[in-house]
Sequence to fold (489 residues):
Amino acid sequence: MHSTPGAVPDGRDQFALSAWVFLRGLALIHLVAFASYWMQLPGLIGPHGISPAGAFFQAAREQLGPSAWRQLPSLCWLGGSGWFLHVLCVAGIILAALLFAGITPALCLVLLWACYLSLVTAGQVFFGFQWDSLLLETTLLAVLLAPWTWFPLWRPAEPPRVARWLLWWLLFRLMFLSGAVKLASGDPTWRNLTALVFHYETQPLPTPVAWYFSHLPLWAHQGCCALMFVIELVAPFLIFAPRRLRHTGVVTIITLLTLIFLTGNYTFFDLLAIVLCLLCFDDACWTRRLRRAPLTNAVTRPAPRWLLRPVAVFVVIVTLLQGSARLTRGTGVPAAFWTMDRVLDPFRSLNSYGLFAVMTTTRPELIIEGSDDRREWRAYELPHKPGDLSRRPDFIAPLQPRLDWQLWFAALEDPRQNPWIYPLCEHLLRGTPEVLALFATNPFPDHPPRYLRIVRYEYHFTDAAERARNGHWWQRTPLDYYVEPLSLH
Fold:
């Protein structure tokens, strides 16, 4: 509905309040992301961490030469990778607070993007997650949406339509590709709608709710899976429909994301997707619920048109080709695209999405154990990863325990595909405090163990009867040695 000249706007064609809420939500997510990373930084990539960033950048400089900075974009090339990593985290927290307060929002977003990209690059294997890329892409596109003024503070500003549509396009790609890649993969569990039979107990960090959902009957799992496909494959198209259909589609997407949030700890991923969804509600929707009049004098100093339109065309073309390559496995994609993709890929700011294209049907778990005599072995417990059979799964999102997550991936592969496993073992044998801080318990508080091993088990949720009998949430069966007993000598 378009307002006539001189008429009081009803908010149906305005998105100033939505953009205001979106930017505050994005600021809070950045605050969580930087704070979460800062707590784990010393043990992961600090000088005494599992994969020191300093050694990583030094090796990159030696192997890649002058092109190292382009293939691994990071401010760490300028400021170092020791204390400067902490500076980046502190800067990210301060910038997130400034963005929330509405102080130089466009500049804050540019700097947040640069700081987070620098940390993602320095983080190596511990930062290879889709939500890290999603946060970078959302932040970069939000620069075009935010007011280009110094102190708009908490005054809402009507965003440029092109910028808003680019973020809608991001939400569309995120949701649609999540469903499409599942079908394109040919995975039989998605094709016959049985994937959720396995999903709740095999996902990286399930919640207590997942235990209950895992015991639903087969028909319920299949019905939920079919409904998920409807939401992921149909609802995204409603984003570009008239307002009632758009609102309906977005509400169904938020419902799905809420259920995912309740059953799995996917860090800030679900919350960031929900924040993107909020941008789809016009101001009439917000004013009706907040019982306030529509805005009549919103601040409007957007990004210049000469920048918006070329960027929009470029983003749409690149991401269309990315999605096509993902679904067709590269067939029919122009060769020039791959050259451009290699240039853009290190910046992780134009991405193709789609989690769980192939469902994991078993849950191998790595249990790290130490011993002084190779007869009595005591386990190191991770903060949130399954270990002790009686420990209840917990809620940790939107924080991300990155070692817990990476060990889940490592269990699915050979240790040779995860070379960081052996430095982890060495640090535990040496009793490195920074690495031990990543664990919930240290079974050797007085001295490091003489020997260490990693045993791989297969974990399953218990049923209701077993849990009532012994209080166990998990049951397990030993599979093999992931790392044979070893020592420093």
